[in-house]
Amino acid sequence: MIYFDSAATTFQKPPAVAKAMEEALHTMSSPGRGGHPAAMRAAEAALTCREELAELFHAQNPERVVFTHNATHALNIAIKTLVAPGGRVVISGYEHNAVTRPLHALGAEIHVAAAPLFSPEEVLASYQRLVVPGTAAVICCHVSNVFGFIQPIEEIAKLCRERNVPFIVDASQSAGILPIDMEAMGAAFIAMPGHKGLYGPQGTGVLLCGDVQPIPLMQGGTGSQSLQQEMPDFLPDALEAGTHNMPGICGLLAGVRFLRKKGIEAIDHQERILVSLAASGLSALPGVHVFSNGNKGAQSGVLSFTQEEWDVEELGEALARQGIAVRAGLHCAPLAHQTAGSLATGTVRISFSAFNTTQEVRKFLRITESILLSKSE
């Protein structure tokens, strides 16, 4: 199988990830649940993972690196901490349902900073118009999960600091691929999954917490302050009720170490080469429309396309039968498709990781061309 669906999850993991998870199963219990060796090994591994994540993302305090089940869990904590029911929120035109559904559940007053694809200047201008006094939070995905559009989060963060509005970054498609500096941005929260660009397993996520005191989504045991019936008021305990996923955390640590050794810049460079090659090849095929920025620098390792004679779901299934794993449809991001004009059709999406090659892209292009020609014959 040629796997081009890393925007969903990086299916291909470094061997060290599975090894670390198996070792955790055999040697660790739960952190904070005793002074015996199995609990202490778990506590040490969890702290090491927090420390390496804090260093990678320039977070000041490892204790404010919180483990979550996934990015959606992390975003729900961030949103529900900052946005009261009916509160005013400004979001980009490319947000995932992990942002929009919690906001709709709160009955939030949502203002969309809509702008054309691959136009970061217009995105920023739209935020500048909409971020006004009384805004409870600004939210922006760093990279669109549908189109790979890199949004200007550093400039948006600066705007939020100037206007004293909390900023939430959804780094689901950028963590481990693009540089992220928590301290420099001064974001209230940065949310990310462990199972995409960090090369950890599914069921892991991270919430980087700034100066805002987060509100727990769940209450329960933490291994600390057991006598009191309120959740601890300090991090990470305040947000980590229940038993930790130690195999997942250890796998995440191994994934982070892999990407740090390989280098974020190197991974980003490789993925952009693959996107450029795929976009060029697809554009040459009959009836194909590619959502691409060429080589202008505002696109990461995610690429969407359509073909005028094919339903995107049918084309995705045809590729799957030929051993090519892609994602077709709306990608849990109808707002992004509405903004880009593809809501009626959806797109076929290909997305890359450090394990993909130019040879795989060329084979994908040959197979795609063969599929398209078979329908026209």
In brief, what are we looking at here?
41% of the residues lie in helices and 15% in strands.
What is the correct CATH architecture of the largest domain?
3-Layer(aba) Sandwich
Helix content: 40-55%
Radius of gyration: 21 Å
Largest sheet: 7 strands, mixed
- Please give the domain count: 2
What low-confidence regions span 5 or more consecutive residues with pLDDT below 50?
none
Element-level helix/strand string? EHHEHEHEHEHEHEEHHEEHEEHEH
CATH topology of the largest domain: Aspartate Aminotransferase, domain 2
Structure description:
By secondary structure, this protein is α/β, with parallel strands linked by helices. It has 2 domains: about 1-10 and about 265-375, Aspartate Aminotransferase, domain 1 (Alpha-Beta Complex); about 15-260, 3-Layer(aba) Sandwich (Aspartate Aminotransferase, domain 2), CATH 3.40.640.10. The protein has 12 helices and 13 strands. The chain has helices spanning about 15-25, 35-55, 70-80, 95-105, 120-130, 155-165, 180-185, 245-260, 265-285, 310-320, 335-340, 360-375, and strands at about 1-5, 65-70, 90, 110-115, 135-140, 165-170, 190-195, 205-210, 290, 300-305, 325, 325-330, 345-350. It has a 7-stranded mixed β-sheet with strand order 2-8-7-6-5-3-4, sandwiched between helices. The chain has a 4-stranded antiparallel β-sheet with strand order 9-10-13-12, covered by helices on one side. Strands 1-11 form a two-stranded parallel sheet. The protein is globular. The mean pLDDT is about 95.
List keywords for this structure.
single chain; 377 residues; alpha/beta; Aspartate Aminotransferase, domain 1; Aspartate Aminotransferase, domain 2; seven-stranded mixed beta sheet; four-stranded antiparallel beta sheet; 13 strands
